[in-house]
C-alpha cells in the first residue's frame, strides 16, 4: 500500500506535461516553419520613407492618398510588384503623357524603389515582389518556350524581339529586361499586357518562360545572321533593298561593259 501511495501522481502533473509539450511544439514550429519568400516584410520606417517619396514625386498625378485622379489611376491594391516594375524600369515617374509609358532612365536608387514599393503595398493587398529563386532562371527551357509561344509570341515576337500593336503602342523587346521585371510584368499586366496571375501561369511556368528568354539571349544562330529575329518583314526588306539592289547594279554594270 505504501508503494502505491508513493507512485500516485500529483493532480497537476498531467497539465504541466501538456503545457510543456505545447510550448515545445510552438517553439519548434516557429523555428522550422517555412517562410513565405514573397511576403512583404517592410518596416514602419521603410513605409514612412516611401510615403515621403510618394508625396514628393507621385502625388501630383496619383493624388495625395494614391487613390487616383483624372491624370493617373489609383494605386490602392496594385501591390509592390507593380511599383517595382514601373519605377524600376524608369517608366515612372512619367516624363511626358503619351499612348504608352516607355522604358527610360531610372530616377531612384534601389533602396528608394523598395521604399516606394513598401508604401504602396501598405495601401492594399496586391502582388508582391518575386523572390530571386523564381526570376534567376534554372527552369525548363523547352516548356518555357512552348508557354511563351502560346501566351506571349503574338505580341512580343517568337524570340522576344518585340512588335507593333494598335494605336501607336508596341510590345517591347525582352532581350535586355531582367528576369525580375519580366516576372512582375506577367504578374501585374502593365500597359496593354494582360495579367497572368498564378491561376493562368503558375510561378513555375513563369520561371520556365524567363529561363527560355535567357537562353534565347545566349544561344547561337545555326542558320546564319538572325537580323534581330524580327521575322519575315526584316528578311523581305533585306531581300528587296540589298538583294534586288545588288542584281540591278550587276545588270547595269554588265550592260555598260557590253557597250
Automatic annotation (TrEMBL):
<feature type="domain" description="Cytochrome c">
    <location>
        <begin position="139"/>
        <end position="217"/>
    </location>
</feature>
<keyword id="KW-0479">Metal-binding</keyword>
<keyword id="KW-1278">Translocase</keyword>
<keyword id="KW-1133">Transmembrane helix</keyword>
<feature type="binding site" description="covalent">
    <location>
        <position position="155"/>
    </location>
    <ligand>
        <name>heme c 2</name>
    </ligand>
</feature>
<feature type="binding site" description="covalent">
    <location>
        <position position="61"/>
    </location>
    <ligand>
        <name>heme c 1</name>
    </ligand>
</feature>
<feature type="binding site" description="axial binding residue">
    <location>
        <position position="62"/>
    </location>
    <ligand>
        <name>heme c 1</name>
    </ligand>
</feature>
<feature type="domain" description="Cytochrome c">
    <location>
        <begin position="45"/>
        <end position="124"/>
    </location>
</feature>
<keyword id="KW-1003">Cell membrane</keyword>
<keyword id="KW-0349">Heme</keyword>
<dbReference type="GO" id="GO:0008121">
    <property type="term" value="F:quinol-cytochrome-c reductase activity"/>
</dbReference>
<feature type="binding site" description="covalent">
    <location>
        <position position="152"/>
    </location>
    <ligand>
        <name>heme c 2</name>
    </ligand>
</feature>
<keyword id="KW-0249">Electron transport</keyword>
<dbReference type="Pfam" id="PF00034">
    <property type="entry name" value="Cytochrom_C"/>
</dbReference>
<dbReference type="InterPro" id="IPR009152">
    <property type="entry name" value="bc1_cytC-su"/>
</dbReference>
<feature type="transmembrane region" description="Helical">
    <location>
        <begin position="237"/>
        <end position="255"/>
    </location>
</feature>
<dbReference type="GO" id="GO:0005506">
    <property type="term" value="F:iron ion binding"/>
</dbReference>
<dbReference type="GO" id="GO:0020037">
    <property type="term" value="F:heme binding"/>
</dbReference>
<comment type="subunit">
    <text>The cytochrome bc1 complex is composed of a cytochrome b (QcrB), the Rieske iron-sulfur protein (QcrA) and a diheme cytochrome c (QcrC) subunit.</text>
</comment>
<dbReference type="InterPro" id="IPR009056">
    <property type="entry name" value="Cyt_c-like_dom"/>
</dbReference>
<keyword id="KW-0472">Membrane</keyword>
<protein>
    <recommendedName>
        <fullName>Cytochrome bc1 complex cytochrome c subunit</fullName>
        <ecNumber>7.1.1.8</ecNumber>
    </recommendedName>
</protein>
<dbReference type="Pfam" id="PF13442">
    <property type="entry name" value="Cytochrome_CBB3"/>
</dbReference>
<feature type="binding site" description="axial binding residue">
    <location>
        <position position="156"/>
    </location>
    <ligand>
        <name>heme c 2</name>
    </ligand>
</feature>
<dbReference type="GO" id="GO:0005886">
    <property type="term" value="C:plasma membrane"/>
</dbReference>
<keyword id="KW-0408">Iron</keyword>
<dbReference type="InterPro" id="IPR050597">
    <property type="entry name" value="Cytochrome_c_Oxidase_Subunit"/>
</dbReference>
<feature type="binding site" description="covalent">
    <location>
        <position position="58"/>
    </location>
    <ligand>
        <name>heme c 1</name>
    </ligand>
</feature>
<keyword id="KW-0813">Transport</keyword>
<dbReference type="InterPro" id="IPR036909">
    <property type="entry name" value="Cyt_c-like_dom_sf"/>
</dbReference>
<keyword id="KW-0677">Repeat</keyword>
<keyword id="KW-0812">Transmembrane</keyword>
<keyword id="KW-0679">Respiratory chain</keyword>
Amino acid at each position: 500500500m505504501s508503494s502505491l501511495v508513493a507512485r500516485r501522481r500529483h493532480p497537476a502533473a498531467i497539465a504541466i506535461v501538456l503545457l510543456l509539450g505545447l510550448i515545445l511544439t510552438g517553439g519548434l514550429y516557429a523555428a522550422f516553419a517555412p517562410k513565405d519568400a514573397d511576403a512583404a516584410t517592410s518596416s514602419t520606417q521603410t513605409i514612412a520613407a516611401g510615403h515621403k517619396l510618394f508625396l514628393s514625386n507621385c502625388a501630383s498625378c496619383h493624388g495625395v492618398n494614391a487613390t487616383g485622379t483624372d491624370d493617373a489611376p489609383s494605386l490602392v491594391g496594385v501591390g509592390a510588384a507593380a511599383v517595382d516594375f514601373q519605377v524600376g524600369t524608369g517608366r515612372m515617374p512619367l516624363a511626358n503623357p503619351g499612348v504608352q509609358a516607355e522604358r527610360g532612365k531610372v530616377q531612384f536608387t534601389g533602396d528608394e524603389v523598395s521604399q516606394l514599393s513598401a508604401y504602396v503595398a501598405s495601401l492594399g493587398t496586391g502582388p508582391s515582389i518575386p523572390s530571386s529563386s523564381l526570376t534567376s532562371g534554372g527552369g525548363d527551357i523547352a516548356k518555357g518556350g512552348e508557354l511563351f509561344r502560346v501566351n506571349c509570341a503574338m505580341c512580343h515576337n517568337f524570340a522576344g524581339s518585340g512588335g507593333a500593336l494598335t494605336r501607336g503602342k508596341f510590345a517591347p523587346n525582352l532581350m535586355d529586361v531582367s528576369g525580375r521585371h519580366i516576372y512582375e510584368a506577367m504578374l501585374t499586366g502593365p500597359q496593354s499586357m494582360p495579367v497572368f496571375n498564378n491561376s493562368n501561369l503558375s510561378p513555375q511556368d513563369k520561371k520556365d518562360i524567363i529561363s527560355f528568354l535567357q537562353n534565347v539571349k545566349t544561344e547561337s544562330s545555326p542558320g546564319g545572321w538572325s537580323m534581330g529575329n524580327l521575322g519575315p518583314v526584316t528578311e523581305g526588306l533585306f531581300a528587296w533593298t540589298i538583294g534586288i539592289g545588288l542584281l540591278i547594279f550587276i545588270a547595269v554594270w554588265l550592260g555598260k561593259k557590253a557597250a
